[in-house]
Specification:
Blueprint lengths: L2 E5 L2 E4 L4 E8 L7 E7 L6 E7 L5 E3 L7 E6 L4 E6 L8 E9 L2 E5 L3 E6 L1
Parallel strand pairs: 2-11
Antiparallel strand pairs: 1-3, 3-8, 4-5, 4-9, 5-6, 7-8, 9-10, 9-11
Amino acid sequence: QVQLMESGGGSAQTGGSLTLSCVVSGLTAQYNTLGWFRQAPGKEREQVAGIYTGSGYDYYGDGAKGRFAISLNQAKNTVSLQMLNLIPEDTAMYFCAAGAWGQFDAYGRGTQVTVSP
């Protein structure tokens, strides 16, 4: 059973930075993609970033391009999301996720990120 546990959320001011981490366990061979999603109150969940575990190819949602960076540490079974130049619109619950070929079906419980003006 896939388990994902996020950490590193918290509060920041506009222009600040945070790094989220997710410890992943129980992955089977079918899973080759890890990612981060976020959901703000009253809004739909959106994908922030993803990374293919085999090639290391990464990709980003429009709101994350140029400010966020996803990285994978396979030795530590950890996927991280470095977030720079935070803005209030980044305020959301952030979820780590696992999937196959960009289709995700396993999510962690989330970690809250709050950015103040």
